[in-house]
Amino acid sequence: MNILTIVFLVAAAVLGSGGFYLVNFKKKENSEDTPEPKKVESESSAVDKSVLVLEANAKAKDLIIEAKTLALSIKTKAEDEARKIKEDALESERKLSGRKAEIESREKEIETKARTLKAVKEAIEKKQEQVEGFRKKQQEELEKVASLSREEARKELLASVDKELSEEKGKRIKEIEEEIKKEVDERVQKVLIEALEFGATDIVVEHSTSKVKLPDEDLKGRIIGKEGRNIRVFEELTGVELDLDSSPGEIIVSCFDSVRRAIATKALERLIADGRIQPARIEEVVEKTTTEMESEMFKAGDGLCHKLGVYNLPKELVQILGRFKYRFSYGQNVLEHTLEMARMGSYIAEELGVNVKTVRTGCLLHDIGKVLTEKDGSHVDLGIELLRKYDIPDNIIACVAQHHDDSHTSIESAIVALCDHVSGTRPGSRSEDYEAYVKRLRDLEEAATTFDGVEKAYAVSAGREVRVFVSPEKVDDYSVALLAKEIAKKIELEQTYPGVVKVIVIRETRVAETAK
To answer: Based on the domain organization, do 368 and 493 belong to the same domain?
Structure first.
């Protein structure tokens, strides 16, 4: 049903109602017009009828206007709704067309990528086939030329390398033995024996005390403190490690720096005697002990210079020389070692008629680099750097630089080296090889970590075993055995050790995921 039909129906309904009203009105008029016998219509009745007709006509016009207005409103509303529906239909059709075009474009793009990937895959497979064919061809040609298989060639190469390394090792040992045999003559032997008799000290070997006795086992808890607070503060301030479990009734103080170990030992003894063990008190005692130790070391250095007759050294060097009192080399106290060296060197220099002062000063300063723990490096290089900083004469620096060498630029430096060797190697001078033991463990670990793919290495069982952890991304299962052999061979050629060293290479892969 369209909008015109609706308008016509409404108009017809209005006109029909108006017509019905007029017909009824006419019937009423006709019925009223029928004269009753002997009765005449009055003039007022005619006037009322005329007014009713006019009102009916007006009413009918109003109804027609109202019907037209309603029809127009309905028509306008229907046109608006039709236009909106048409616009929505056009918009939906436009979106659908755009989506369809996008899908078609993506389909074409996917098809293009698929064709490209297929072409790349085919090219890679072709290259792999070519490489594999080339490799097989080269291997066949090599085996044909050498008349050896791959495994046979590998074994022969390894055997050749092992033989060369063994020959080189034997050659070096033989050269060292020949140099040792030519070291001294009768004249040197005589002078050396007399020097030993003159320069030997009453006490040569000393041992550092790294243990602090506890009067009561309950003190360990107070030293540790709440949640380890006290022991943590003490270790941070002193730079040492405390072991409270290894020895009953004692605390073991561990540190490679003998001065820090001495400060920590004395500070711990004072704290135990005082009984007040808390962070603030620990800081106060450690600071006071450090100050006192600095004063003691200066006095020790100054006393050593006076004993040897070496004066006019900078105060900074005298302070550093005082550290000799707390420094031990293989159990031998460096201060006593220096004093013994200087006495022997002075005697030998006088016998040979060379500069006694140069020899004495060289003996005094030869190991000064051993107490410079703030820097890494050889104690010889550290000592040279320090002495040059304070403008020490070159002839004395040469004695320090060459006291471990076999070749010397002067007779004075040779005497210093000889005295150092005699003082350190004579029977009874050194009874504890703790530093060499630690160095040997470090060398074992460093030998393993020089190989590619090694993450960590640990020397255990007193250096009789080295456990090597490798990166699974860099070292596969087939390379582990060869790596172990290479590490073992490197240790065998470059290091000296008692017994045997077992090398264990560990390769581990861990994968972790989280369930959410």
So the answer is: no
364 in Cβ contact with 308 (< 8 Å): yes
Given a cut of 60, whether residue 129 has pLDDT beyond it is yes
| Distances in whole angstroms, Cα of residue 132 to Cα of each of 30, 126, 344, 495 | 124, 10, 74, 43
Q: What angle do CA 317, 318, 324 make, to 5 degrees?
A: 100
Give the CATH number of the domain where residue 481 resides: 3.30.300.30
Average confidence (pLDDT) over 305-309: 88
Q: Alpha-carbon Rg of the chain, whole angstroms? A: 56
The single-letter DSSP state of residue 32 is H
User: Residue 14: pLDDT above 70?
Assistant: no
CB 272 within 8 A of CB 219: yes
Q: Percent of the chain at pLDDT above 90?
A: 4
Domain count, the chain: 4
- Secondary structure (H, E, C), 115-135: HHHHHHHHHHHHHHHHHHHHH
pTM: 0.44
200 contacts 347 by C-beta, under 8 angstroms: no
The DSSP bridge partners found for residue 205 are 332
**Which of 438, 439, 443, 437 minimizes the C-alpha distance to 490?**
443
Q: How confident is residue 116, by pLDDT bands cut at 50, 70 and 90? A: confident
- For 515, which DSSP code? -
Which helix (H) or strand (E) is 460 found in, with range? Answer: strand 454-460
Domain that residue 407 falls in: 186-206+331-432
Domain containing residue 196: CATH number? 1.10.3210.10
Q: Express each pLDDT in 465-487 by its tens digit.
A: 899 999 888 888 878 888 999 99
pLDDT of residue 431: 54
Give the torsion sign (CA, 114, 118, 124, 127): negative
Residues 6+ apart with CB under 8 A from 23: none
**Candidate from 53-67, 299-313, 405-419, 421-435 with smallest mean pLDDT:** 421-435
pLDDT on residue 12: 59
253's enclosing H/E stretch is strand 250-254
> CB-based burial of residue 434 (10 Å sphere; 0-12 exposed, 13-18 middle, 19+ buried)?
middle
Q: In Å, how far are 436, 459, 494 from 443, measured between CA atoms?
A: 10, 9, 10
